[in-house]
User: Fold this.
Amino acid sequence: MNNIMKNLEEIVSGLFLVATVIVVILNVILRYVFNTGFYWVEEVATTCFIWSVFIGVSAAYKHKMHIGIDMITTLMPKNAQVYVSLVINSLMILINGYIFYLSVVFTRASAIKPTAVLGISSSWVSGSILVGFALVTFHACRFFIHDIMVIKNRNVVEDAQ
Amino acid sequence: MSELAFLPVFVVFILYFSSIPIAFALFASALAYFTFINTGSPVDLLLQKFVTSTSSFPLLAVPFFILAGEIMNYSGISSSLMKMAEVLTGHMRGGLAQVNVMLSVLMGGISGSANADAAMQAKILVPEMEKRGFSKGFATAITSASSAIAPVIPPGINLIIYALIAKVSVAKIFIAGYFPGLLMCVCLMVTVALMSKKRGYQPMRDKMASPGEMIAQMRHSFWALFLPFGIILGLRYGMFTPTEAGAIAVLYCSLIGFFVYRKLKLRHFPAIIKNTVYATSSVVLLLVAASVFSYYMSWERIPQQITQILMEFKGQTYIMLLMINLLLLVLGMFLEGGAVLIIIAPLLVPVVVSMGVDPIHFGIIMIVNIMIGGVTPPFGTMMFTTCSITNLPIAEFVREIIPFILALLVALLVVTYVPYLVMFLPNLI
Assistant:
């Protein structure tokens, strides 16, 4: 259970990815074997994919898999590194919180627009951005709190000495 | 144009060097630009870019080929290809190092990522090379350098991404990758042979494999060797689109993993899918970030200014290509290769094409170039991957990698200045 919670984003994102692959494979098979195909394949595939991507963004951020370099941080003395990390994580909260806010506005605006093929509300597509960046902001907050705890604990240890 | 036009570019640099991931650095500075400097455009419209640059059917080829490559890693195919490489090159001077280079070429035909190739070979081949008397520095350096070949050999993720950006045919750029990939292979193999002679690294086997042995091994590896040709033929004859080719590759790799080599198990799939999710979402987030950032750049007419600068070199294409190569090499040392491609290609492709450079030729130049950046200190991605797996100090890596980087640069020069060699194959189809 704990394992599922820890990998929740990976699982959801992975399921959407698998759905994307299966839909496209089925369509190729249908076209070659039965000479037919589903008209909705492209839209369903790309919608599953956009969900997979933005939830996957959070999964990758949670496990620090996004491409960045830590040149300045590693050059710093160990004690200062946690403060740098604190600044960076607060910047990440700002950036992603702002994108999250924009995505709320955007999702609400797109609710009345139907999608091109299935005619469902576009919020079903743009909602993926909202969910994805809500999760990234959440993890950024978690990292931020973690940094604060580290600083606090260190002070406690130093006081005790 | 305001005096603050270039501010966002500096902001990206500052954020990136203080270890904010590049995609988020691009978001931050573009969003800040549209919130504080240029308030004429509604910011939430930028979110439209998130949707349009992600929900594209052709883009699906990227995750599909990443997934196919991941499945291949578990399917037992690498050990079959390793034997193939050994049969082909084991008798040469510096045996196992030559096998290392050849294996990258063969692996390039099934997985399109340099990092995956570097990680796999660093885990499997470097310990084996050390046992046979190679120094750890040499073994790690050649593993890293040879992994630069894999993305150039079709099918490669970066080849697909470039085809999407430059709007060129995937089949053509796939085929165009063969010659440059083999050229890089030859350059590295010659370097290995020269260095092995100096250091006394021995061949693996006494004499060349007999034709019979080669044919037997080829039959065993047939299913893996066939994949890239099947894809290119299918694309060329319009049997499927690149996206469908990716989906078929996923199916094909699963089937041969389950039933031919029988190493693939259902329990491998959680790890396979997890890795694919990480790799895919990083790449696609970068595509989104680059498209948001390019919105800022077009407001400030930066692409036009770059065009103007490059137009100074009109009629001197070779100087322009030299400058572009230098720029890319520097960027590639600091940024991951895919990121350089995604950020820079949209800016440069229109200009160089207007100067008569074939976009397919240019794509190959870019990809070979950024792959060299990936093995170059101080921040080469493949350098970090291999060194962290083999526990090699970076300083030692730097000493050993130099001859291999020079060899790859020779290949880059040939690829840049002899377009005929690159374009010969794609022009045939």
The CA atoms of residues 140 and 386 of chain B lie 6 Å apart. Chain B has a mean pLDDT of 90. DSSP finds 21 helices and no strands in chain B. Chain B touches chain A through 55 residues (CB under 8 Å).
